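P.,

For your records, the input lines for the assembly:
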Amino acid sequence: MDAYLDHAATGPMRPEAIEAMLPFLGDRFANPSGAHRLARDARRAIDEARDEIAELVGASPGEIVFTSGGTESDNLAVFGAGRAAAGPAVTAGPADDVARFGRAVCSAIEHHAVLDVITELDGATIPVDEFGRLDLSALSALLLEEADRVAAGTGPGVRLVSVMAVNNEVGTFQPLDDVARIMKRHAPGAVLHTDAVQAFCWTDVAVSCKSADLLSMSAHKFGGPKGIGLLVAREGVAINARQVGGGQERDRRSGTQNVAGIVAMAVAARLTAAHRESEIARLGALRDRLLDGLLQLVPDAIETAAVSSTGVADRTDRAAGIAHICFPQVESEALLFLLERGEIYASAASSCASGAMEESHVLAAIGVDPSIAKGSLRLSLGWSTTESDIDQALAVIPPAVERLRTFGI
Amino acid sequence: MQVLVGMSGGVDSSVAAAMLRDEGHEVVGVTLKLWGGDSDSGCCSVSDVDDARRVAQQLGLEHLVFNFGEDFDEHVVNPYVADHAKGLTPNPCIECNRHLKFDRLLTRARALGFDAVATGHHALVRPVGPAGSLRICRGVDDQKDQSYVLHMLTAQQLSQVLLPIGSLTKDEVRTRAVALGLRTAGKPDSQDVCFISHVGGGRRSFLSDRIRLHPARVVDKSGVDVGEVDAVELVTVGQRRGLGVVIDGRPRYAINVDVDARLVVVGEPEDLDVTGQSLSGFTWVDEEARLHALSTASVTVQTSAHGEPIAVATLGCEANNRTVVEIEWTEPRHRVARGQSAVVYDGDVVLGGGIVS
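Structure tokens returned:
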């Protein structure tokens, strides 16, 4: 039996979401921007979806910008925030961009969809501690330093801070309220963006991400289709559009809306929110059984960024569905193949365009020794995960690790 | 058998995978990601991984990507750079075969439960002699034979290596690829060093990004200055082009390169002649091959990838130091640059090989 334990990469769609989108691939195909009855039907579908999603994420409908997914939302937020909303944002290069609009900074464990934009814009990264949580004193120090430079007339200040809600590799929650508090003190003009792509299943973002001015989400991480996501842009937070044209999404994201995707995303979001509390309890227990089992069955296994007091793991600071563990003297690439042979589907670090494993910047930032990070394994659970998936993982993984250690790879 | 086929994205390994599948093996394809920097194509770029994956899909095979970039840097790229800094002329393809394809990959394949690793090299693995010992032999296509770059494989490794296309000519490989409808059928052969981009300035630019290149005096045998070069590290013994030295209407050849002294000595072609060469780091296919080489008058030596076999007068290798081999030619020959590999054959059969020291 296939045991799919890669929900943080993507998961199966909820059947109700599939059903909800089908009419919009068929009879209800019209362009919502049109002026006729069929168009109004499509328009109504996305309006209702927008209302529903807005409520679920703690925003007003006008604050929702539908995008093609997490990466687009992250790019739109990090490139676009803190500039004039209308008109081009063309600059002569990173230095000119910083001089005109201010600096953008992010945590060192952001997804590449944020991190690479920050790098391109000559931004800065803020370190995390050994538990994978943002170093708040480093954030304070950085913002203070930038504020001092503004006061001295030698710097443009910080325009944006981007800190993800839940890390995609190790699952740690980030202290957004604390970040917002520190920003209020040292960089009151800056905008807080959070990449909440991994968050929606594991936390009520309407509460946990309320401090964020901008928030990115992606439907396929919670049972919706790929190719649809959203950016919450709070009232009064201007974003410069990356994609211009027909003026859809209140000029923040032009292009004909993905009606079927939007409708399905709303259904997936509704179901996820409705079952969230019970799923967190159910999947958290499975995650604990999985991790505790592996730690017991595999010699020298190390739970990544583990918090423990008196030897008992405390996983309350991380997403219930993400288990991250490292096996010294093992290489993930080889392990994943043996797992696949045992019909377990999981991930190691991030993969590059060719499909090859790359070193994880997240594990490096947490301070995991590179030789240990080589043997990393992320098992991520979701709505379709069952007890038997966990049994299978516990049966397949320990002998696979032992085999690779015997061969010395 | 369960076979892991190294698929570079080229036509040879594509056909190799197809042949093994058709022979009834359980075949999985793998592409090695070796080089993270710029390259024109070679083994390493994303488009080649795409080609390999698409061919595997076409053949109904699973396809994996292994990132051996760190090992490639350690065993191939860094030594290549360090050798040039010492004035040697290394062959990185041989080191890649030695350390990556037939060590790292073979070990991993065994750990993952495969019985053998296959590649698209033009060479054959055959049992030879009364004992039926496994040997690398020249592929049937003389022009494409790659036994030279596989000389380091021991008999023990060969028991886990399959080279299916060694029995075909290149034309036959392409014909099969066309018949199978493979997208790689018309793809040109890879050339040169896969991790060096010609668009990006070639070997000079690659090396100058990593080591300091030094100008050097060019002198004749009596020590008189006759010119200069701007990078002594790029001069190879035997080289004529790029030195720009013509005396009495005859071009002169580099007959000695001294990186430390920043000196290139030029002379006439006959000044390159030597009566023999010393090889180090020599690997014999097995002990039987060593004894055979020592007792067989007809052994030949090949000193470049597509060079001619050269007759040998004597070949010496002591039992207590099997990695060192002394060769005496039957008549004086141009010196082979240090760092190049020399491979000992009996007819079409590889017995071993080492590096010119």
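Two observations worth noting. The longest strand of chain A covers residues 103-107. Chain A has a mean pLDDT of 94.

Regards
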